[in-house]
Amino acid sequence: MRKNREMKKKPDSSLEPPKKLEPQVEAEDEEKAATLPSDRRSKGGLLTLPFIIANEALEKVSSYGLAPNMILYLMKDYGMGVTKGQNLLFFWSAATNFLPLLGAFLADSYLGRFLTIALGSLSTLLGMIVLWLTAMVQKLRPAAACSSTQPPACAPVAAATSAQYSVLVSSFVLMSIGAGGIRPCSLAFGADQLDRKENPHNQRVLESYFGWYYASAAASVIVALTAVVYIQDRMGWKVGFGVPAVLMLISAALFIVASPLYIKRKSTRNLFGSFVQVLVAAFRNRHLPFPSNLSLYHSSKASPSKVPTAKLRFLNKACIIKKPEDVKADGLPTNPWDLCSVEQVEELKALIRVIPLWSTGIMISINISQSAFPFLQASSMDRHVTKSFQIPAGSFGMFTVIALTVWVVLYDRAILPLASKVRGKPVRLSTKTRMGTGIFLSAMGMLFSGVVEHVRKREAAKQGLLNNPHAVVAMSAMWLIPQHCLNGLAEAFNAIGQTEFYYSELPKSMSSIASSLFGLGMAVANLLASVILSTVDRNTGGGDGKESWVSSNINKGHYEYYYWLLAILTMINLVYFVACSWLYGPCLEGGSRVSTDEGESVLLLTDRVSTPATPLGVLG
């Protein structure tokens, strides 16, 4: 088996050695097999998993624990208005969702997964330390004046200086860079330690690892949204920011200490570079006529595609052989920027085809990223469960995670098996049906959020609290749970449906792209959400003292109008989705994927659910 694996690693497996060399090749392989397997067996395996899973779990606890209360820190300690604070969080979220794409590129092309994760862990740790220092060192944040009340209420007396603001933003940047290194690589790096084709139980071992990995991820998010947020509420920012920093220190130390135990695989082909090559080659060959002789299309011998499809035909010119010298004796192109393979062209076509449907998921991500407003709603309502215990305002996001998790388990373990038993055949909802259902549920979540806010504001007016933005209205915050549950169900349908759609429609070689598209959508959504929020604030406020819809005074603003605007935009997006779905045509629905890729698809779509499942969407 060792010999077979090494033969597969050769640049061109289609070139067979002459018969007379076979004994020599066998002898060389046997010699390698005698030395390499023992070294390989000494690395990787189950022993490494606690270090990898602990690294990811502690990073999630640390990062997700910072996000829920961050708007409160920005408003109270830095004197930011809700619009400016939320926009800063939008940009932080956009960077955190986009940089994993860059991290995946660097890991696959240059650094390898271990070094990328290690550098990411150190960057995240440094960012958390800087954020903790902003709470510890008064000079790093605006000066504050405190009242004589008990406990004293403190508020900044001046805006943050450029230096203070830069320190704060640098902490966010460092944490985003760290997430870009850890999140795209951690899961696959763990699989590298277990993926041994010679093991007859290899697939079962991988599936077990995937299950434990995501169980730890889900548990980490719950701990972050409860324990860490509670510590911040009860013990203040110094302890509340210090705890995540300590956890991240432990996370980085555990991962790096186990370095000698890991299997560290080398980088592989870079798909992003391949796409650029196709575009450049197609442009350079734009004046070439399409050949009548189909053998003039270049394809690798191992590729099942010998002729390009007719869709997006202009890209086919990238794989036209102009002269025999364009192809070397080993079957590779002389200049990959002048000639690409049919497989490369079809990969790019597949990506272009899914972009319209990918864009329909941006609106639901915009809704998810509205972290400040649900937090401010919860802060202004009665959050008591008992007389002595109240749920922290930042912890209400756990209901989104709980609803998502419960639905996924019920759907997979109860609803589908029961429906299949009743129908007498396998039953499942198509990926596009689930995506559309998720968009509709997201619109309903925004609609319900607006209704609850309308009632809350009416109660605030009755109780004479309109001029007191910090007052607690005599209305139970448990009314916020349905909107969080609707958001969780929307994520369960749309996020899983999206990622499964990408995996079924894109070639197997593009699995890394499929796993990244949802995060890219979140990044774009964060930027668009900032544009929408700024536009609403600018056009609904006035210089005559008129309050903006998104005023920092929740009792004078009109958050319900903002929610309903998002609901209307989401319904328009649903119509757009139906049109894109109809134009796309029927889906493959995963029928062409082999068992190993199905396992990978399930694990990666689960990661896409667990990551943006938080209502903050900041660290997805």
From TrEMBL:
Residues 1-39 are annotated as: Disordered. The keyword Membrane applies. It is found in: Membrane. The keyword Transmembrane helix applies. GO terms for molecular function: transmembrane transporter activity. It is a multi-pass membrane protein. The chain crosses the membrane at residues 88-107, 113-133, 211-231, 243-263, 389-410, 435-452, 517-536, 561-584. Residues 9-23 have a biased composition (Basic and acidic residues). Keywords: Membrane, Transmembrane, Transmembrane helix. It holds the Pfam family PTR2. Its main location: membrane. Belongs to the major facilitator superfamily. Proton-dependent oligopeptide transporter (POT/PTR) (TC 2.A.17) family. This is Uncharacterized protein. It comes from Cuscuta epithymum.
